[in-house]
Every structure is written in structure tokens, then in C-alpha cells.
Backbone:
């Protein structure tokens, strides 16, 4: 990895490997992944089911720890940090959109969007959250709970939540996986629009070739390895 | 693969994976605390009963006015029971020229079988000592009265019948002389071997022959059952329960207290199991949906889970029984000084009860969720958000509640106590539920005003409305059981103790003649004592019930009833019902004289004799028939030691018959000479000293209170399991929350604070409910079941709420610690 790459990359990995012990044998899920993402870039990680895409995304965000290898996010070697420090880094740098929305059922739409703002101590969280929900077209659904919202609406809340803290980078894991195709298209449009508006770096995990083509660059995974 | 095999495979897998930890722990602790309480209470009850038997000197007496047939002793020997005999008769004792009528007790080896015989100390060691055996042949042990009368010393000789016996000991206390007739003469103890030489037993002598029996309760009961079929009219059997209604009442009350302690752990167990089963059913939804989608029938699924839970119940209950047996043994060793007598070996009945309790509790609370599981739609394999059963439907808990109620009524061994507790708990559940719902709704509105951690704490409580209510109600009930068991029980025991104050009546005066009332009053005023209230009494034999002749032989099956029929009843009359009497049926003649002579019967005796409200009873009073109608039944607190009567009449129809009076009074030990004076001044008045009985009851109260303190430790343990189960029941939701919070960048501390807020609120609510419930229940149990006044204890509220907040907070934080260490990705992928 050259110095230039390191300097310009918001994210880079070095020999990232993840193995799990199934009791009888060791299973390698990711093997020696070296990749980098530049600031402002939109990158698709594409691969078949079971290729290790979601595991890679989880490691990039520090949601799990690798067996070996490094992840540098926003200039920080994240696995030298403890779990709390990684959480603090996430709240500063990352936004997430998941396939299954991952909204907290206890909280209303508004409160779900306020959550990351409040966690990072933003004072006018409510106003900012309302603005974002308005932006994703849900100003009439502020006080509804996730189970009262359709799948598309839930994903909109999730997108609003992802952009709430003005993250430098958005990680999206099959964001249309649980939606019908028409809603899926709307959601993708919304996500790319916001991405552009906020100038966010995007890492999009998908198995959908067409969707991956909307990103500037594609990284292909097969059996836990990068395929060039 | 058949469901039978699948059920065992699943059980093995779930057990190994730790899926059943909470459920098994709840069940094991439930059953073990139940059996610990059961085994221990069984042993203490037996020991208490043995100690009461000290008043008889045995567990059972066979009493006769002629030498007893050998068959009784032989049967006792066959049943491996200890025996001894006492032969009692009055005899003149001489010391030189001085003579004194005394009661002679000739005893054989082993006497007394229960309790101890205390002898005066010697100059070298002035303390009382416990007699080691009985008087040697040729010797005589005397009591204080004779010692003083003859100014005796050890070594002096006394003439008893044809022989001379040497005084070797001074008897201070005999176990079977607790209820002493003060105007009886002095008492002496001799060896039965001297009887024939002394030539004291002759035709026509007034002699009482007692066969003392003692041993294992079961064997004693067997002996009693057998002996009752052998008794001739001149023979009777006496156990402690037949002997003194005061002791019987105290023993029954002690048993109720211990049952109450055992019931507290049942409630806790039920709450823990209900919570654990709920979690189980949520976690098995997916598995069921998959099996349904693969073609499993609803019946098949139901049978599989039924087998699963039955096997689980049997294994866990057996583990619980084993643990309970070990724990009670430790407890028994620890408490070896609790009872004077060694604790007897427990029976196996508590183990069988434990197994039954475990199965009934588990199946009662597990069957409805199992039924829910079988109807999970197969479509859930495609859409995880559907098919969530309503795990909190009231119907789902009805079977469990019904199971619990029947356990209550069964374990209380008292229908009334059982019904009170069941009604109490069901009312509490409903009231707590409704109040909980209102409070949760109110609190979730408040969250918009609250900031930070409180907002998320309140949001969680509000979102999981039903879970929160179930958690609060279960925790509230658990805490309520603990509060009832500790504070309220303490208060009730204290009340019981204060009912037997140091100045409780310890002497009864019987056979006071009408013309002695004024002189007696004058006598007391000499000693500056208030004259005690006297009660009139006439004696009458029951001859007819509703015009039908009463024959003692009709009651041959029930020796207790037969004895009442053979003996004269003490009939009294009054306008005012005593404060320690309570009407249970019918009504009291409040004022004036009812048109038809009326009777109020003690309810226990009414049941024994088979008489009821409205029956007309005829008594033979001084040769005249007197008929009166039963218009009320009363419950009598015999252990108040006040004068009470089994049968009380309305004023007006008994007065014309020969009347005597009876009263009770407290005589401080220092004033005992006054009683000697009274006996001298009124030789016909029978003075009965019950100080030892009072002491026995006071000791029993102290023992019960200590026993309960230890039982409480186990109930407390069960309380922690409820707490843990309550926290674990929402563990999966919390793990998910933690993953999202962590993903969004929450620090450990932020998450911890949100949960802490939630636990504090839940604990506070549970504590509030528990305090309110415990206060109401304490009042009801005290007032209606134990017949003790309950004084409101404001500390309950503070202790209840604090215990709720601190307990739920601590256990909650401990229980969720592992949640914080699970990598978020793992959770999200599992659930996503």
C-alpha cells in the first residue's frame, strides 16, 4: 500500500482475514482482503450469497473483530481501539443502512432518527431529525412506530437515521433486499441523492449487478477472496 | 423421525446449549425451596409436637383405672415404640409423727419418655440438673411442698405404706406436671419396684395407671389407631392435642405460619416459571414454523412439546428434591439448638409434594404457550414478523393460575387460608395489571419531557407495554410474597407474642361458689389486686339432639366426641360475646333475652359432635332437662388463656340451676404465696396453674419465628431467580437493542444508563405494588385467618420500593452485562 493511497483513502484494509470455529473445523470466511476506498467515492461490494460480503462490511465498521489483518478508517487503525472507542469512531464517521432496516421497535420514527444524534450529544437533535424525516418524505409519520410503517417507509427512516450525524461514510448492506422492486428503486434513488447532497463516501454491499453499476467502482468477492 | 425421538433430541440440544438454564434454574430452586421448607417444616412440626408432648411426658398416654392389659405394651413393642408406666395414687406419707397426704407416682425405667425431670442442685452446684434415670428402689424423690412441710434433708427416711424410703432428691419440675392443681397435696416419686413391698395397691384404691408411649410419629399414629379399637370403657387415650386446647391452638397457628412461608416460595416459583416459559416459546417460534412448513401436524407438535416439558419437569423436579433434601439437612444441623429435642427424620411426603408442585407449576404455565406454538403459521419462515403469538393473553395464564390456586389450597392445608391467599393474589394480579397498564401508559407519555437515558428507559417500558406489565406484576408478586413473609409475618408474630403478654392469665380458679364471690373480692383487695371477672357455670350432660336420645356408643368411631358425650359440659351464659370469640355462623343474641333459649357452640366441637345451626339440644342439668336451640357457632382463640366455654347459653334459662363460677388471673411468681393463702382460705376452690403451658406456647412462638427466618433465606434465593427470569425474559430484545445502539456508536456507558433507568422504573413500580399488596394481604391474613390484629407498618412502603429498585437494578445490570460484550454484527446477522 503506497503512501498516496493511504493519504487519500478514507478506508483501507490490510490482509483482513476472518475465520470462525465451527467446533469441528475452522471455516475461513474472508481471506487476505486488501482494499481501499477514497473519500467521496461510491464503491459496490458484489458477490454471491455466502461470499463474505456482509462479514466484510461488519469488519469495515468494527462491528466484529477479524482473526488477523487491519482496517484503517478515517486514519485510525480501528482494531487497536477498544469496543467503546470504536463505537465513538462509528458515531463520528459512519452511517448504516441495513437490509432489514434495524430500527428500534421501542422508538418512534422521530426517536429512531434522534438516537444517533443524542448518542453523540447533539443538542437540537429533534429539529435535525424532523428535518431529515421531512427530507425522506415522512414528515407525516414522525410519531409512528416501526411496526406501523411499511417496509419502504421503515427503510426511509433508516436512511434518515444514517445521514443524521453527517457521516463521512455510508455503509449499506443490501438496502433493497427486503423491498419490492418499485419501492427498492425509490429507496436507491433517495440514498444516492442524499449521498450526493452530503458528499458522503458510499460502500454498498449487494448481489444485484444492476445496482452495483450505479457505483463508480465494483469490488467482487468470491469464497471470501477478492476477485479482480 | 418420530416426534418422540425428536422431543428428546431437542431437549438434549436445548439443555446443552444452555437454552433451558433459566427455566431449569427456576424449577430446581422452586422445587428445592419447596422441599426444603417442606422437609424442614415437617421435621420442626414433629419436633414441636414432641416438645408439646413433654407436657404429657410422652407422645401418647393410655390411661386406665385398672392395671392395663399387657397387649398395649406388647403392641407398642411390636411397633418399635418406647414405653414406660406411671402408677398414680394418693397416699399418706409419714415422717416421724407428722403425716401428710401426697400423690405418689411410681415410675418404671425410661420415665419420662418426653421432656425432662429437673432436680434441685446440690450445695456444690446449685443449678437445677436433669435427672439421669428414676429413683433407685428404696429411695424417694420429693417435691418442694413436702420438703418444706417435713423440713426434710437428703438422707431422711419417710414411711410410705409398709416400707421406709430414703429421700435422695428434690424434684423441681416434672414434665407431666405442667398443669398443676395447686390445692393437690405434695407429690413424691418412687420406683415401681417398691410398690408391692409397700402394699399400697389394694382393692378399692383410687389408682390411675398410665402407659407412656413415644417414638416415630407414624408408629405412634399406628399405635393410636390400633389402641382406639381395643379400649374398654375404663380406658382412654390422650395425646397432647387432646390434652390442652391452648397448645392445640398454638400448634395449629404455628403450622399456618410455616405453611405461609412455604407458599411464598410457590408464588415466586410460579412467577419465575411463567417468565421463563414465555421466553422459551418466543425462542421456539422459528423452529416450529420450519417444522410446520415441512408438514408437521399441530397435534404432532403439541405432543412433542408436551413430552419435552414433561421430561424436563421430571428431571428438574427430581434435581430440586435432591437439592432440597441436602439443604434441609444443612439447615437442620445449623439449627440444631432450635428445638430441645433432636429433629426427627423427615418423611418422604415433602419430596412427593415437591415433584407434584414442580410438574403442576411447569405444565400449568407451559401448556398454554405450547398450544400457541403449535399454531404458528408456516408462513413465518418467509416473513419473520408474522405469527408472533399473544404471549400475554390472560387465557394463557389462566391454566397456570388455576394450577397455582389448587397448589395454594392444597399446601395451605386449610381451605380458608388457601382461598384467602388465592383471592389475594388474583386480586393483586388484576389490580397490579390494570394499575401497571395505566402507569406504563402515563410514563411513556412522560418520556418526551425526559432526556437522555430516561427517555430510552421509558421508551423501552412503553414499547414493551405487555412485557413491562408482566415483568412488573411478576416482580411485584415475588416481592410481595417476600414482604408478607418477612415484615408482615414478623408483625403478626409480634402480635401473637403480645397477645400472650408477661401478665397473661396463668392461674384459673374453678368451682367458686356464689357465696364466695364477695369474700373472694375482699381477699384480692387485701392484696391490692383488682378482682378478676368471674364467669357463671353450670354442669350438664348432653342427653338429646333434636329430641333424639344421645348414646355415647353412637360416637364409638370418634373417641374425642365420645368423651364429650360421656362427660358433663360446662355451660355458661352471657349477654356479651368475649373479644377473643368470633361468630362464624348464625348470630349472637345482642341485647336482651331471646324468646327461645339459645346456645352458641364452639365450631370445632360442633363439627366433632355433628351438630349444626338450628339444632335443639337437651342437657340434663341437676336432674332437669333443659332444651335450647343453637343460634350461632363461634371460633374461640384458646391460646388467649382467658376463660372460654365450648357452649354458651343466652341469659335466663340456666340461672336457676346450681351455679359455680370460674375466673382466670395473672399471678406474678413473687406473689405465689398469695395463692397458697387463697387455697387455705377457700379450700373448695380448685386453683389450676398453667404457667408452664404459657411458657410452652411462648417458646413455640419464638421457635416458629426463628424457623421462618431460615426458611426466608430460601425464599430470598427464589426471589433472585424471579428477578433473573424477569430480566432474562427480555434478554433477546436487549441484545438486539445493544447491537443497534453499538452500531450507531453508543458507548457502553450510554447503553448502561438507558437500561439502568428502565430497571429503576420497573423496580420502583414493582416495589410500589408489592408494598400495597403486602399491606392488604397482611391485614386480611391477620384479621381473618390467624385472628390477630394487624397494625399498619409504614416501613413496608419504603423497604418495598427500595428493595424493588435496588434488587431489579442490581440483578438487571448483572444480567445484561454479557449483552454488552456480544459483537453487534453477530446479533444483527442472527436476527436480520
Residues:
Amino acid at each position: 500500500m503506497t503512501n498516496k493511497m493511504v493519504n487519500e483513502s478514507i478506508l483501507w484494509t490490510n490482509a483482513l482475514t476472518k475465520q470462525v470455529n465451527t467446533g469441528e473445523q475452522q471455516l475461513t470466511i474472508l481471506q487476505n482482503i486488501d482494499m481501499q476506498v477514497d473519500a467521496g467515492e461510491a464503491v459496490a461490494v458484489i458477490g454471491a450469497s455466502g461470499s463474505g460480503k456482509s462479514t466484510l462490511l461488519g469488519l469495515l465498521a468494527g462491528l466484529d473483530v477479524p482473526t488477523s489483518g487491519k482496517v484503517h478508517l478515517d486514519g485510525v487503525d480501528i482494531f487497536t481501539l477498544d469496543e467503546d472507542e470504536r463505537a465513538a469512531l462509528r458515531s463520528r464517521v459512519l452511517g448504516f443502512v441495513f437490509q432489514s432496516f434495524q430500527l428500534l421497535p421501542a422508538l418512534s420514527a422521530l426517536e429512531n432518527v434522534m438516537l444517533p444524534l443524542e448518542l453523540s450529544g447533539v443538542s437540537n437533535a429533534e429539529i435535525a431529525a424532523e428535518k431529515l424525516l421531512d427530507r425522506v418524505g415522512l414528515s407525516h409519520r414522525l410519531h409512528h412506530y416501526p411496526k406501523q410503517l411499511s417496509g419502504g417507509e421503515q427503510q426511509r427512516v433508516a436512511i434518515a437515521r444514517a445521514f443524521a450525524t453527517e457521516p463521512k461514510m455510508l455503509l449499506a448492506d443490501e438496502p433493497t433486499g427486503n423491498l419490492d422492486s418499485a419501492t427498492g428503486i425509490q429507496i436507491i434513488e433517495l440514498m444516492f441523492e442524499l449521498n450526493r447532497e452530503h458528499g458522503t463516501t458510499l460502500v454498498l454491499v449487494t448481489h444485484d449487478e444492476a445496482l452495483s453499476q450505479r457505483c463508480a467502482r465494483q469490488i467482487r468477492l468470491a469464497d471470501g477472496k477478492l476477485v479482480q | 423421525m418420530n416426534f418422540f425421538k425428536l422431543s428428546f433430541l431437542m431437549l438434549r440440544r436445548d439443555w446443552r446449549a444452555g437454552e433451558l438454564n433459566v427455566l431449569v434454574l427456576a424449577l430446581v430452586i422452586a422445587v428445592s425451596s419447596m422441599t426444603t421448607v417442606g422437609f424442614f417444616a415437617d421435621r420442626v412440626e414433629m419436633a414441636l409436637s414432641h416438645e408439646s408432648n413433654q407436657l404429657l411426658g410422652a407422645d401418647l398416654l393410655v390411661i386406665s383405672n385398672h392395671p392395663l392389659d399387657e397387649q398395649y405394651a406388647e403392641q407398642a413393642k411390636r411397633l418399635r415404640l418406647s414405653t414406660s408406666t406411671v402408677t398414680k395414687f394418693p397416699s399418706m406419707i409419714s415422717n416421724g409423727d407428722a403425716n401428710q397426704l401426697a400423690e405418689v407416682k411410681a415410675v418404671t425405667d425410661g420415665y419420662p419418655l418426653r421432656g425432662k425431670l429437673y432436680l434441685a442442685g446440690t450445695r456444690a452446684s446449685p443449678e437445677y440438673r436433669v435427672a439421669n434415670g428414676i429413683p433407685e428402689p428404696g429411695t424417694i424423690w420429693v417435691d418442694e411442698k413436702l420438703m418444706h412441710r417435713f423440713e426434710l434433708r437428703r438422707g431422711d427416711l419417710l414411711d410410705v405404706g409398709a416400707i421406709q424410703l430414703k429421700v435422695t432428691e428434690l424434684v423441681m419440675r416434672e414434665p407431666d406436671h405442667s398443669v398443676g392443681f395447686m390445692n393437690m397435696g405434695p407429690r413424691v416419686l418412687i420406683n415401681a419396684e417398691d410398690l408391692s413391698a409397700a402394699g399400697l395397691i389394694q382393692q378399692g384404691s383410687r389408682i390411675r395407671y398410665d402407659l407412656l408411649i413415644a417414638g416415630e410419629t407414624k408408629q405412634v399414629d399406628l399405635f393410636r389407631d390400633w389402641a382406639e379399637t381395643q379400649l374398654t370403657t375404663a380406658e382412654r387415650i390422650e395425646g397432647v392435642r387432646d390434652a390442652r386446647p391452648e397448645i392445640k391452638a398454638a400448634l395449629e397457628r404455628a403450622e399456618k405460619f410455616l405453611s405461609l412461608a412455604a407458599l411464598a416460595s410457590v408464588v415466586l416459583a410460579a412467577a419465575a416459571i411463567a417468565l421463563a416459559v414465555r421466553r422459551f416459546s418466543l425462542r421456539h417460534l422459528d423452529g416450529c414454523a420450519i417444522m410446520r412448513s415441512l408438514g408437521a401436524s399441530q397435534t404432532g407438535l403439541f405432543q412433542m412439546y408436551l413430552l419435552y416439558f414433561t421430561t424436563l419437569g421430571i428431571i428438574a423436579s427430581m434435581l430440586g428434591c435432591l437439592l432440597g433434601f441436602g439443604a434441609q439437612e444443612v439447615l437442620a444441623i445449623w439449627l440444631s439448638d432450635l428445638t430441645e429435642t433432636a429433629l426427627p427424620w423427615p418423611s418422604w411426603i415433602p419430596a412427593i409434594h415437591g415433584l407434584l408442585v414442580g410438574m403442576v407449576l411447569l405444565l400449568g404455565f407451559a401448556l398454554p404457550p405450547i398450544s400457541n406454538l403449535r399454531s404458528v403459521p408456516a408462513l413465518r419462515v418467509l416473513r419473520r414478523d408474522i405469527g408472533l403469538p399473544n404471549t400475554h393473553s390472560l387465557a394463557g395464564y389462566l391454566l397456570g393460575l388455576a394450577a397455582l390456586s389448587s397448589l395454594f389450597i392444597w399446601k395451605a392445608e386449610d381451605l380458608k387460608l388457601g382461598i384467602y391467599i388465592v383471592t389475594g393474589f388474583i386480586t393483586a394480579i388484576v389490580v397490579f395489571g390494570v394499575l401497571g397498564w395505566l402507569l406504563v401508559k402515563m410514563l411513556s407519555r412522560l418520556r418526551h419531557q425526559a432526556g437522555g437515558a430516561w427517555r430510552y428507559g421509558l421508551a423501552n417500558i412503553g414499547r414493551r407495554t405487555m412485557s413491562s406489565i408482566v415483568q412488573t406484576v411478576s416482580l411485584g408478586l415475588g416481592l410481595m410474597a417476600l414482604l408478607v413473609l418477612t415484615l408482615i409475618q414478623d408483625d403478626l408474630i409480634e402480635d401473637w407474642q403480645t397477645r400472650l403478654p408477661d401478665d397473661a392469665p396463668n392461674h384459673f380458679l374453678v368451682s367458686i361458689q356464689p357465696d364466695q364471690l364477695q369474700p373472694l373480692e375482699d381477699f384480692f383487695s387485701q392484696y391490692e389486686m383488682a378482682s378478676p371477672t368471674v364467669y357463671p357455670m353450670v354442669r350438664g350432660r348432653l342427653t338429646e339432639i333434636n329430641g333424639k336420645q344421645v348414646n355415647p356408643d353412637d360416637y364409638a368411631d370418634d373417641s374425642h366426641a365420645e368423651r364429650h358425650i360421656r362427660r358433663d359440659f360446662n355451660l355458661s351464659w352471657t349477654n356479651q360475646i368475649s373479644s377473643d370469640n368470633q361468630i362464624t355462623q348464625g348470630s349472637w343474641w345482642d341485647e336482651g333475652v331471646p324468646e327461645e333459649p339459645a346456645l352458641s357452640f364452639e365450631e370445632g366441637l360442633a363439627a366433632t359432635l355433628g351438630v349444626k345451626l338450628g339444632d335443639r339440644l337437651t342437657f340434663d342439668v341437676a336432674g332437669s332437662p333443659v332444651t335450647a336451640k343453637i343460634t350461632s357457632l363461634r371460633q374461640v382463640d384458646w391460646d388467649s388463656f382467658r376463660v372460654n366455654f365450648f357452649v354458651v347459653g343466652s341469659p335466663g334459662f340456666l340461672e336457676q340451676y346450681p351455679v359455680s363460677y370460674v375466673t382466670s388471673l395473672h399471678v406474678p411468681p413473687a406473689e405465689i404465696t398469695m395463692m397458697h393463702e387463697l387455697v387455705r382460705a377457700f379450700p373448695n376452690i380448685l386453683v389450676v396453674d398453667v404457667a408452664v403451658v404459657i411458657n410452652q406456647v411462648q417458646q413455640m412462638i419464638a421457635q416458629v419465628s426463628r424457623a421462618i427466618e431460615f426458611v426466608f433465606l430460601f425464599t430470598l434465593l427464589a426471589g433472585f431467580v424471579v428477578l433473573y427470569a424477569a430480566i432474562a425474559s427480555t434478554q433477546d430484545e436487549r441484545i438486539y437493542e445493544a447491537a443497534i445502539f453499538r452500531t450507531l456508536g453508543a458507548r457502553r456507558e450510554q447503553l448502561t444508563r438507558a437500561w439502568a433507568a428502565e430497571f429503576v422504573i420497573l423496580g420502583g413500580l414493582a416495589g410500589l405494588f408489592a408494598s400495597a399488596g403486602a399491606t392488604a394481604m397482611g391485614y386480611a391474613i391477620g384479621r381473618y385467618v390467624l385472628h390477630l390484629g394487624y397494625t399498619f407498618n409504614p416501613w413496608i412502603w419504603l423497604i418495598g420500593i427500595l428493595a424493588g429498585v435496588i434488587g431489579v437494578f442490581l440483578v438487571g445490570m448483572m444480567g445484561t452485562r454479557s449483552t454488552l460484550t456480544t459483537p453487534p454484527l453477530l446479533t444483527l446477522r442472527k436476527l436480520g
Observations:
- Chain B has three domains: 3-49+248-499+697-831, 58-243, 507-689.
- Residues 3-49+248-499+697-831 of chain B form one domain.
